[in-house]
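Hi F.,

I've been meaning to write this up properly since the lab meeting, where we talked about keeping a consistent format for the predictions we share between groups. The idea is simple: the sequence comes first, exactly as it goes in, then the structure tokens exactly as they come out, then a line or two of notes. No screenshots and no reformatting. I'm using this chain as the first example so we have something concrete to point to.
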Amino acid sequence: MYSITHCNSDWSVSDLHFTEYIDGFPENYIQTFDFSFNTKVSYVHYELVLPNSDLRFIKSGNYVLTVYDTEAK
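Output, unedited:
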């Protein structure tokens, strides 16, 4: 999954609610990915294009993209 956070010019988290800077959901699943094959180390290649059908920016500024594993233990 990924989440988007709006930040001020000094990269501190802004006081805006996500509905003030995003049209859509602040957290979404990454839909495009491929598993490795014929490699010594297994990995997953993720692809994310912004904006997309789940999220559209409505305010300019600095944004932090956080990618995380929902199944991490």
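Notes:
The chain has one domain: 2-67.
Strands lie at 2-7, 22-24, 27-28, 32-35, 44-47, 55-57, 62-67.

If this format works for you, I'll send the rest the same way.

G.
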